[in-house]
Known about the structure:
Elements: H1 2-19, E1 42-46, H2 49-58, H3 66-69, E2 83-88, H4 92-95, E3 109-110, E4 116-119, E5 123-126, H5 132-143, E6 152-158, E7 163-168, E8 174-177, H6 185-192, E9 204-208, E10 211-215, E11 237-240, E12 247-252, E13 258-261, E14 267-268, H7 269-275, E15 284-293, E16 303-308, H8 315-320, E17 323-324, E18 329-334, H9 336-369
Parallel strand pairs: 1-16, 7-11, 12-18
Antiparallel strand pairs: 2-3, 2-6, 4-5, 7-8, 9-10, 9-11, 12-13, 14-17, 15-16, 15-18
Amino acid sequence: xxxxxxxxxxxxxxxxxxxxxxxxxxxxxxxxxxxxxxxxxxxxxxxxxxxxxxxxxxxxxxxxxxxxxxxxxxxxxxxxxxxxxxxxxxxxxxxxxxxxxxxxxxxxxxxxxxxxxxxxxxxxxxxxxxxxxxxxxxxxxxxxxxxxxxxxxxxxxxxxxxxxxxxxxxxxxxxxxxxxxxxxxxxxxxxxxxxxxxxxxxxxxxxxxxxxxxxxxxxxxxxxxxxxxxxxxxxxxxxxxxxxxxxxxxxxxxxxxxxxxxxxxxxxxxxxxxxxxxxxxxxxxxxxxxxxxxxxxxxxxxxxxxxxxxxxxxxxxxxxxxxxxxxxxxxxxxxxxxxxxxxxxxxxxxxxxxxxxxxxxxxxxxxxxx
Length: 370
């Protein structure tokens, strides 16, 4: 009687296990719209050549804003806090009043916060806003009243009036001066050094005159890149964001499920699967490769679930052209035999316990009958 009960119990557990097998799997039948609120939250979209072509047609290739490309740096203009070195040939008392044995900076002329500097015989000179050539001519003209045919030269010992600030995922954050040599975005980032593991190359932000411009450093890999022609001016701010928010979550029947960060504008599906070691060849279902997108906005719009039939290697061609977006979830479902094996592995301990219990009760009943 007890043995018969054990068999019935095992059969019922097996039947219930077929309906509720362990582990995650995606039931696409629930994504067929039947008019219910639940079915309207998810849209199943097969990844096909037509879908890839439609996405490519809607993508707009980013270009550098014309407002940035139109800026052409002019000659350097002296400003407050610049340190100048003024040379008057054949007049060392004017060139190096502190003596030639002193360091060069000791004989420099500092432009005061109000934009003026003091010079012997001339007095206060309105230096701010003048180019180096304009300042040289101004000093020579005023000095000619005291020195016959003065030969004047002006150079900048320390550039401090015009700076740009660089912050974010760089190795040397801080200020960089604008000098007599125009400073481009690429040169400024190169001097600061990009943090290769944590930077989001596609999210560089240039703030100028209260307006923000988005630039993609990754486009430098293209021959027609326009970034080389973007020059900075005093007061600009560059921010290179971190890529900690640019993550793709790969889970399911892959060899190394984990979250992936990426530093370029996008990562395609093949890259994501390859980074985690590919599909598990013994447990995965090649027809159950899904990309879940938009799950964080279910209150306003349905989530999109893209399905790739990866049973054929040719499907990887489509996967290579399917770009993922931050916060996408890549899920690879288990094969049917995998789910069945996991069910059996959980049922066997239960069956063993039932069998042992039944055997013990039966032995006890036989002992009592003696």
